[in-house]
Amino acid sequence: MSVILGIETSCDETGASVVTNGQIIRSNIVASQIDLHARYGGVFPEMASREHILKIVPVVEQALRDAGATWADVDAIAVTYGPGLAGSLLVGVNAAKGLALANGLPLIGVNHLEGHIYAAWLATEPARSEPQFPLVCLIVSGGHTELILMRGHGQYEMLGATLDDAAGEAFDKVSRLLGLGYPGGPAIQKAAEQGDARRVKLPRAWLEGTFDFSFSGLKTAVLHLVKQASTPNSAPKLQPSSLRAEIAEQPAAISDIAAAFQSAVVDVLVEKTRLAAAQCSAKVVVVGGGVAANKRLREQMRERIPVPVLIPPIGLCTDNGAVIAAAGHFHFVRGERSGWDLDVVPGLRLVAA
Ligand code: KG4
Ligand code: ZN
């Protein structure tokens, strides 16, 4: 039995949550900075850390209040110490240290990516059983795209990762190119609903024989389409002839490009995850991270992968404190504690290179 307070400040959400046994969410408060950063088209790091400073104490207080908990009920404080923005991480880690010291509680540093994985353990249906090992996990967020094999709690084997842009980063960059705003994932998903993916052909980097990903070529292909659309008479460069023919007949609408881009990203993510699950004889597939909020990805994963696919509810895919508390619980039960010298590690990895 554990009651963990989870704190998350790695990017642009200030999150705090009280979770029992790594499964039962008693409260989950997230103060989002999306409106603040939207006007810059992306996260402005210094403003993000200052905003965390303003929000962290009220968010933690609210999390305790909503849970009906006092400090005496809490067994440990889990906090994200990386990867993420240094200035943002520092706010959460220092708040966690101060609160742990003041209340005589153990401190547990959590890798943000573990949080995205352990979102799958948070019970949304009380009767649901825990994910079984071995499992294959796809983490798709703004900074990461990784396929990981887990044979047990806290055991991570890297199967593959992106060689360039993360999937969420590609959504954000392509959204900017298409003038759809920030954050890009939800904006592209919305535009894609009105579009026809078959009207635009975009490349897919299969990188066969590996579980690695590459999304920069796809982004560049969209850039060429956009350039071409804004100068319709110029000869297209660097584009496959099939695409040239299609474009010449009828310029693609922004919504068609958004739909084709979304399909291309989802196709590769689903197919690589399917192959990895088969190769590793995975009992389940877990998908986590902000891009796991994508409707098409959720549908295709469930449709095309033959083993059960666990994808957390949308609010637990994007950054929040509950997933950090869930991951923290599994460190806690193994007796793992961080020292008072816990420092932020902006480039923290799940598996040593
Ligand atoms: O996990 P997250 O909240 O923060 C990081 O750890 O990076 O992920 C944020 C990323 C952003 O790139 C955002 O565009 C993407 O998740 N995202 C989506 C959707 N919702 C958020 N991507 C595709 N479809 C969505 N519906
Ligand atoms: Zn994240």
Describe this structure in words.
The protein has helices at 34-38, 45-67, 86-103, 112-118, 167-177, 184-193, 216-230, 241-249, 254-279, 295-304, 314-317, 321-333; strands spanning 3-8, 13-20, 24-32, 76-82, 107-111, 135-140, 145-152, 155-161, 284-288, 309-310. It is of the alpha/beta class. The protein has a 5-stranded mixed sheet, sandwiched between helices. It has a 5-stranded mixed sheet with strand order 8-7-6-9-10, with helices on both faces. Helix 3 links the parallel strand 4 and strand 5 (107-111). The protein is globular. The chain starts with a strand and ends in a 20-residue tail after the last helix. The model is unreliable at 235-248 (pLDDT under 50). It binds 5'-O-[(R)-(carboxyoxy)(hydroxy)phosphoryl]adenosine and zinc ion.
Distance between the termini: 34 Å
- How many helices? The count is 12
Main-sheet strand order equals 3-2-1-4-5
User: Which sequence of SSEs, written as H and E, runs from N to C?
Assistant: EEEHHEHEHEEEHHHHHEHEHH
Instruction: Determine the structural class based on helices, strands and strand pairing.
Output: alpha/beta
Write the topology of this structure.
Layout: E1 3-8, E2 13-20, E3 24-32, H1 34-38, H2 45-67, E4 76-82, H3 86-103, E5 107-111, H4 112-118, E6 135-140, E7 145-152, E8 155-161, H5 167-177, H6 184-193, H7 216-230, H8 241-249, H9 254-279, E9 284-288, H10 295-304, E10 309-310, H11 314-317, H12 321-333
Parallel strand pairs: 1-4, 4-5, 6-9, 9-10
Antiparallel strand pairs: 1-2, 2-3, 6-7, 7-8
Helix pairs in contact: 2-3, 4-12, 5-6, 5-7, 5-9, 6-9, 7-9, 9-10
The site of 5'-O-[(R)-(carboxyoxy)(hydroxy)phosphoryl]adenosine has 19 residues, from α5 and α6.
